[in-house]
Amino acid sequence: MRLLFYFLFTLFSLLSIKAQTEPWQGKFEPIDNMITPPNTYRTASGAPGRDYWQQQANYKIKATLDETNNTISGKETITYYNNSPDDLSYLWIQLEQNVNKKGNEDFGGINNNIKDGMTSRQMQFLTRAIDFPAGYSIKYVKDSNGKNIKTMVNNTMMKVKLNTLLKSGESTSFSIAWSYPITDRSMYSLSREGYEYFPSDDNTVYLIAHWFPRMAVYNDTEGWQNQQFQKLGEFALEFGDYDVEITVPEDHIVASTGLLQNSESVLTKAQRKRLDEARKSFDKPVMVITQKEAEANEKQKSKKQKTWKFSAKNVRDFAFASSRKFMWDAQAVKLPTNTVMAMSFYPKEGLPVWQEESTKAVRHALEVYSEATFDYPYPVAISVNTSNIGMEFPMISFNGGRPKNGKISNNAKQGMIGTIIHEVGHNWFPMIVSSDERKWMWMDEGLNTFLHQRTVAERYPDFNSVTPKSIVPFMSGDKNILRPIMTTSDSELMSQFGANFYLKPTVGLQMLRNSIIGKELFDEAFKEYANRWKYKHPNPADLFRTLEDATATDLDWFYRGWFFTTDHVDMELSHVKWFKVYEENSNIEDQNNTSKVKIDASGKNVQAQTKDFSSGPEMITMNATPDAAYGQFLSRINEPELRKQLSGKNIYEITIKNVGGLVMPVTIEWIFTDGSKEIDTIPAEIWRRNEYEIQKTFIKEKEVKEVNLDPNFEYADTDTKNNSFPKVETASEFDTFKNNKRKS
């Protein structure tokens, strides 16, 4: 014990420690108390545990689309497998269509303020002065024996009170008959589905989603996920197999989740032949339904019906689109373990850009996402053109973006292609890596946007894409209204959920990949997460732990700051001091020319802060180390060699302040007097012992002209004006005002 005390005393007597005088905030402490603790279901490594379980729900559905009355009705049989360790006396069913009922608790809650000037459409969103019917009519719920099951509807959730206890390890089947009016998408906000009417040819495109009563998730972390649907937070769903029959007008074309089972009944011989050709076409799309055929369909208005049959395995949802207006093109995409049919469905209003770009964008998404995670496992990936929306479902997505009179601006085209890539990308997050959208929007939107932006950057390098600079305006915002990423979906403001749930997680992952962990190691870890949790239900803790587990990198400091706070990055290069070691035998005149003050090794007589390097270096007197300083060590430093190694070298001490509160690695650019440059990177751990201010010493052969922090803008620093030394002088608001007045 005496030896340890002596060692510590000696150590502290030798080190000059810059004390942190402000309150310690524990920025590098573990986040264990902020996330779900590990257990046998979810391990401390971030992987599913030996006892992990999840439920399964299989569906058999027969539905009819009534174009005359804009309604859909159906009957479904759900077979529900209770893989949990719990016995269940009731089940919860999601009834999302009820959110559109007038008087719903969410009605008007998204934007509910009246302004002195409002458009008629904004007033309709707010008041619903023009009323329309909405919501489910549940005709019956019956068990497998045909007996009625008691139910209770609470807004967008229906409680099914089972006639017989569903024990652990058993399954049950029950049937539901239902109908609802399909809503006009133009009549209310956040319209993810419904119909779009085209007055010019008196036709309609139907986007049918959230259309059948479906099982809520029951899991190990919260039991039933029966949080009400309030439009912003989306869905938590179980995986299962689907057999679906969809009856529509005879001249309609249906795009759907799953594989078409009866093409001979719904497609012409010529169309089936083209579809077969598309399965062998890897270089360009083949038109399955041409513009001429689609325009002929528009005029028919058939009163007859036909039924399309689809089958989908191991998906968490099912959606479809139906219209007589659709053109249809398709192309095969070869992946290492699978060949996928990339398809696009669009009305003539989407020409020519949809025919030129949609299926190509689907292919790019399939290729880049598969490389980054796992090969796309499903047989088809479909993009359907619509207006004012981007919405995803397994194997199919509804994507906005249309030309006007056949022409589209470059920005609008970029937006259209980006939307297609983004929504197709959702097949991975959350359709396969099935996180809880209703609770954590960022887990699907953020991870998906990260890969969406990577796809854009790699396949469309001339397009704009997200970088750390993109998030600066948001992170510079008012801290009174900013919320952390770890905010539940429906608690975020409409004005900032895009920045907080899409862009900020994207930038965070970009920083981890490009600057903190490194591409190769990060890519392995991200792929590990995707493969661990495909077809399963991960939580934030599972992602956080997996990235650390697969990289051997402590990232708690990053998670704590980036995901759990509203701190921002603002590092200030407070000062740079230039020193040289004083040499007794050097030319005294040279010493005098380059130094006004000589300081000793203990740091006394340090000059006041300078604004640049014009005063030359300060000279450090390096004294011989007394024997007592070595303690019990018998060896001695080779002082002549040390002096030789430091002779003529430039020693720079930099001071950096953490103004924004968010700790990050420090990247320093040195620009030398001969014009050359050099980069040094300091890991974020340098902030461990002082979260507010750090100092670091560097030895350079050359004299430095300028020093800059974060020269490549890797860390979303919100104020770059304080990143340089010598200081960059900026004009005051008054001087700027005077200069502008002179110019005018």
TrEMBL record:
How is this protein annotated for GO cellular component?
cytoplasm; extracellular space; membrane
The GO molecular function terms of this record are: metalloaminopeptidase activity; peptide binding; zinc ion binding
> Which SUPFAM superfamilies does the annotation name?
Metalloproteases ('zincins'), catalytic domain (SSF55486)
Listed under GO biological process in this entry are: peptide catabolic process
Q: Record's Pfam families?
A: Peptidase_M1
Give the matching InterPro entries. Answer: Peptidase_M1_aminopeptidases, Peptidase_M1_dom, Peptidase_M4/M1_CTD_sf
What residue range is the signal peptide? 1-21
Record keywords, A-Z = Signal
Name of the featured protein: M1 family peptidase
Which species does this protein come from?
A: Flavivirga rizhaonensis
Instruction: Cite the Peptidase M1 membrane alanine aminopeptidase domain residue spans from the record.
Output: 407-562
